[in-house]
Structures are given as C-alpha cells and as structure tokens.
What we know:
Distance between the termini: 45 Å
Largest sheet: none
Number of helices: 4
Strand content: under 5%
Structural class: mainly alpha
Low-confidence stretches: none
Number of domains: 2
Amino acid sequence: MTVVELKAHVISLVEQLDDPEKLREIEALLTKSYVSPSWEKEELQRSVARSEADIKAGRVYTMPEVETQMEKYWEDRT
C-alpha cells in the first residue's frame, strides 16, 4: 500500500468512527501527546506515590518470592 493509499484508508476508518473517546485517542496519538486513557497523568502520579510508600514501608517481594507466588497462582487456576 502506498502512502497515499494508506492515508486514504486511515481517513476512511476515522470517518466511520462515532466514539468520541477513540477519536480523542487518535488525535492524541497524531499530536504526539498520547497517554493511554486508562492512565491519566494524575493516576500515574498516584500509582508512583503508592509504590514509593510501599517500598519505604518494606512491602516488597524478592524475585524468588514472586516466582513462587506465580507458580501457586497458575497451579490454583488449573
């Protein structure tokens, strides 16, 4: 597909969209300000703050502990 054909195809797909959220996502992607809608800046900041608090409080796992937990998780699901 040539660049011209690709542009025409993308425009056609966009013209068919009625979902404002999807259109905002496309706009953000094309203007290079894309952030996944489920992770707005404020939510990312809250998540980082919670993670830092967990680390300071010692609420962390070693890699072997995580591997053991994951093995148990998958065993319980089968």
